[in-house]
Specification:
The chain has 638 residues and is mostly helical. It has helices at 2-8, 11-21, 24-35, 53-83, 87-115, 118-136, 143-171, 181-213, 222-231, 237-247, 256-292, 314-333, 338-357, 363-383, 389-396, 404-407, 412-429, 434-458, 472-493, 500-521, 528-531, 545-572, 578-594, 597-603, 608-628, 630-637; strands spanning 401-402, 462-463. The protein contains 26 helices and 2 strands. The radius of gyration is 25 Å and the shape is globular.
Length: 638
């Protein structure tokens, strides 16, 4: 139930609770939240005093996040349902896809910096992403074309991602807006996750619509069993027939082989249409961008003449390439995944190159940043399991049906009604204009009744789908971003705010807590390698709250680490390496994403609690490392 509390725990409620307690310190804490302009959520004032281009960036990036979270929700499920690939192969494709998204952001930045045409590169990226999603929406494509289409999306994302963020920063280089920069990035970050919240529901809805249109119900266990039926490896035919009968709307199945073939085709085609929904989202973003990109700044970045010039000679580049080849070859010789070897080798080449072109005075800062990058690799390797092994867990080890109350959070209209009720309560109990409190009362009444009606209509048992779990992370980001930021500001006003490196270390400890929760939830369940392809018994399916609470904890860790890490890079980087070191952050993220395959590699080879223990251990070791060098990092920050 911890995950539900975050919806109630918003800023104004916290302020009023503090007031009611009449505790001196807590009342000051509450007053801070009431007064902070940063926490003003009135629709008309959210973008007040900001450049109009922020709204353009807001909606342009919303489409990209929609597509990103569509992929996170369904990519590995689509690969297994369509092509019958095992967990290791699905994880490898997934990890290459996310590696490419972040690694190619370096290419996008280089192109934009070289041409000085940031807006044109951004538009090109949107168009390329749109074409990639359109191609993914075409049914019947083989695995090789699918991988090519995924690379197309990654390329477009690389051209788009970093450059749009750079343009947002350019808008606030204007002294008129400089003081609003932090608030702008918070609005931007929160807004793009609104698109991410809707994506899993849309993908799930498109797939289910196509299933129902063809006379089938959804059952996530069936695609794997259908493939086993067709290739002659199915062992439990009786269970398969029972599930097939339940999934076939017209009644008992007479020809199980024909059912298996048809169900796979319809199921996977439903995912194709989900990719089509993502393409529509990209088209909306493209339309907004085409018509309103004139509101974005047209800034040409020039180099200062008094900055030290680095001599990027052929020898330094050659040395970096040699290091990359050596590292990759070492992985090959040791018979370790050469894909991981390539990613680590690329990062080693970056380290070699940046150290070789930096001056003696710059090097301590560069080394400190590289050490933080090493920590970041382990965070993203663990965090982005949400679209891989945690999605497997949602499909295979979470109960297929829940009660009426829990179902409020797995149906889009239910959760919107519930959130509307909470928003109304906040306005109602918050001190302010009587008009706002009346609006809050009306919202509480209307949405509260709607929530109750939806609750009563739900029934005692309601089917849930694994894709919907991906909506919780963006929901928690939207709910918690301002709260976490506000707490840091409150602590700063009292001289107690942790340093940026310390926040990163705390974030790693929190991340370990998220996977520790998964470990506990997996102690008494049968592991995939013991099943040998058989469906997971109901006795090994657990409550969805294990995953929901884990997503909550990991989201808090993300808010401690991701924006704080970017802040640390901007503070510590030498002036002439600001862009390059931001690129290094993205490269570290890319390497972490390539290491995602470790989770899928061990998925069906060890106990599930041992799998989660890997990520607990990695997170704690990374935290121990950053705390071991904390004094050095804090000295550079200060």
């Amino acid at each position: 139930m911890l995950s539900l509390s975050v919806i109630y725990l918003n800023y104004y409620q916290l302020a009023d609770v503090c007031r009611d307690l009449n505790a001196k310190k807590l009342s000051k804490f509450g007053a801070f939240f009431r007064k902070r302009e940063l926490l003003n959520f009135k629709t008309g004032k959210m973008f007040k005093n900001h450049p109009k281009g922020l709204i353009v960036a807001f909606f342009a990036n919303m489409g990209e996040r929609f597509g990103f979270y569509t992929m996170m929700a369904i990519l590995v499920l689509f690969l297994q349902a369509k092509f019958d690939v095992n967990a290791e192969m699905a994880g490898s494709i997934y990890s290459w896809f996310y590696f490419a998204i972040y690694a190619l952001a370096l290419l996008g930045g280089i192109i934009a910096d070289a041409t000085k045409r940031y807006k044109a590169v951004i538009m090109t990226g949107i168009i390329v992403m749109f074409l990639g999603y359109v191609m993914m929406a075409i049914p019947g494509m083989g695995l090789t074309p699918t991988i090519i289409f995924l690379f197309t999306i990654s390329l477009g994302n690389g051209l788009f991602k970093g450059n749009l963020q750079a343009v947002v920063g350019q808008m606030y280089d204007n002294p008129k807006y400089d003081k609003l920069r932090d608030k702008a990035y918070l609005l931007f970050y929160m807004g793009i996750n609104i698109g991410a919240f809707f994506a899993p529901f849309a993908a799930n809805g498109a797939r289910n619509w196509w299933l129902h249109a063809n006379g089938f119900n959804h059952d996530a266990s069936l695609p794997a069993m259908c493939h086993q039926m067709l290739n002659g490896t199915l062992q439990d035919t009786e269970t398969f027939r029972q599930l097939a009968d339940a999934a076939n709307i017209s009644g008992p199945v007479t020809d199980v082989s024909a059912f298996a073939q048809s169900y796979i085709e319809v199921f996977s085609k439903g995912y194709n249409y989900a990719f089509g929904v993502a393409a529509i989202a990209m088209l909306i973003s493209l339309t907004v961008y085409i018509f309103f990109n004139r509101l974005l700044p047209k800034v040409e970045v020039t180099k200062s003449d008094n900055q030290p010039k680095s001599r990027v000679g052929a020898l330094k580049i050659l040395l970096s390439l040699v290091i990359m080849a050596a590292v990759t070859s070492l992985f090959f010789i040791l018979k370790i995944d050469t894909g991981i070897g390539f990613a680590v080798g690329l990062f080693a080449a970056f380290i070699t190159w940046i150290l070789s072109i930096s001056t003696r005075d710059e090097r301590p800062r560069i080394v400190a940043l590289l050490l933080v990058f090493g920590v970041v690799i382990f965070f993203w390797m663990s965090f982005h399991q949400n679209g891989l092994t945690m999605t497997f867990f949602a499909r295979d080890y979470t109960v297929k049906a829940v009660g009426a109350f829990t179902y409020l959070f797995f149906d889009l209209w239910n959760i919107l009604a519930f959130l509307g009720t909470v928003a109304g309560i906040v306005l109602l109990i918050r001190k302010g204009e009587i008009k706002n409190r009346l609006i809050g009362g009306a919202m509480t009444l209307v949405f509260g009744i709607l929530t109750y009606i939806r609750y009563r209509q739900a029934g005692p048992s309601n089917d849930i789908q694994p894709e919907v779990f991906q909506s919780f992370n963006p929901l928690f980001i939207v709910s918690l971003t301002f709260l976490v930021s506000g707490i840091f500001t409150w602590l700063a006003n009292r001289g107690k705010e942790p340093s940026t490196p310390r926040k990163i270390g705390i974030g790693m400890i929190i991340a370990a807590g998220g996977f520790l929760l998964m470990l506990v939830g997996s102690l008494d369940i049968v592991s995939p390698f013991e099943l040998n392809g058989a469906p997971v018994p109901d006795s090994s399916r657990v409550s969805p709250y294990w995953l929901m609470n884990s997503y909550l904890i990991l989201t808090v860790a993300e808010l401690f680490l991701s924006p704080m890490g970017l802040s640390f890079v901007s503070k510590v980087s030498p002036a002439r390496f600001q862009g390059l070191m931001q690129g290094g952050w993205l490269l570290a993220t890319a390497v972490g994403n390539k290491l995602l395959g470790i989770g899928s590699f061990f998925w069906d080879k060890i106990e599930l609690w041992q799998l989660w223990a890997i990520f607990v251990t990695c997170s704690l070791l990374a935290a121990a490392f950053i705390f071991a060098i904390m004094k050095r990092l804090e000295r550079l920050t200060n």
